[in-house]
Specification:
The complex is a heterodimer of chains A (115) and B (110).
Chain A: E1 3-7, E2 11-12, E3 18-25, E4 35-41, E5 48-54, E6 59-61, E7 69-74, E8 79-84, E9 93-99, E10 104-105, E11 109-113
Parallel strand pairs in A: 2-11
Antiparallel strand pairs in A: 1-3, 3-8, 4-5, 4-9, 5-6, 7-8, 9-10, 9-11
Chain B: E1 5-6, E2 9-12, E3 18-23, E4 35-40, E5 47-50, E6 64-69, E7 72-77, E8 86-93, E9 99-101, E10 105-109
Parallel strand pairs in B: 2-10
Antiparallel strand pairs in B: 1-3, 3-7, 4-5, 4-8, 6-7, 8-9, 8-10
Classes of the chains: A mainly beta (115), B mainly beta (110).
Chain lengths: 115, 110
């Protein structure tokens, strides 16, 4: 059974960098040609795709984030990560990590941007 | 690039069938067979219902089906059940490998 678990600070100050890690268990993150994604959801609003990384290291991002997002993969620890720089209040959301098209999701972690 | 367009809400009675539509453009929904559908109950992570327009992951009941015509994708739920009351989101990829979600549709089972 594949499981994903997000971890990271729940509170980030404006203009700082949001950093989250997704730990994968039950599956080797380097297996096959899958991709690993991040999606976020502000309270009471819809889903927003942030980006994805393939096991090859190739990445794709939501252009609306204006290059603030960086996704990386750590095969030795079976994890992948998200960094979102220069955060503002509008970046406050529940952040989800996802396997492939959504076959498996993390439980989500709330990140609040506030001073 | 804007989000895909979904009807804000839809309702149906138990046993009925309903269809949720997702309208995009020829650059996303209409151009590629990479449309997915998700179900999200309040306070829970979304669940994948349909991928690649019409394929169901293992464990998803065949009451859920997906299709596409032109720039509009559709999710049909037949034999509506009370537990189907939820939010539903579509998504699609563009030619530049970026993914967008629809705004979501709230399904009420009367």
């Amino acid at each position: 059974q594949v499981q994903l678990q997000e971890s990271g600070p729940g509170l980030v100050k404006p203009s700082q960098t949001l950093s989250l890690t997704c730990t994968v268990s039950g599956f080797s993150i380097s297996s096959g040609s899958h991709h690993w994604s991040w999606v976020r959801q502000p309270a009471g609003k819809g889903l927003e795709w942030i980006g994805r990384i393939f096991t090859s290291g190739i990445t794709n991002y939501n252009p609306s984030l204006k290059s603030r997002a960086t996704i990386s993969i750590d095969t030795s620890n079976n994890q992948f990560s998200l960094e979102l720089s220069s955060v503002i209040a509008a970046d406050t959301a529940v952040y989800y990590c996802i396997f492939s098209e959504g076959d498996y999701w993390g439980q989500g972690t709330l990140v609040t941007v506030s001073s | 690039q804007s989000a895909l367009t979904q009807t804000a809400s839809v309702s149906g009675s138990p046993g009925q069938s309903i269809t949720i539509s997702c309208t995009g453009t020829s650059s996303d929904v209409g151009g590629y067979n990479y449309v997915s559908w998700y179900q999200q109950h309040p306070g829970k992570a979304p669940k994948l219902l349909i991928y690649n327009v019409s394929y169901r992951p293992s464990g998803v009941p065949d009451r859920f089906s997906g299709s596409k015509s032109g720039n509009t994708a559709s999710l049909t739920i037949s034999g509506l059940q009370a537990e189907d009351e939820s939010d539903y989101y579509c998504s699609a990829y563009t030619g530049s490998s970026t993914k967008f979600f629809g705004g979501g549709t709230k399904l009420s089972v009367l």
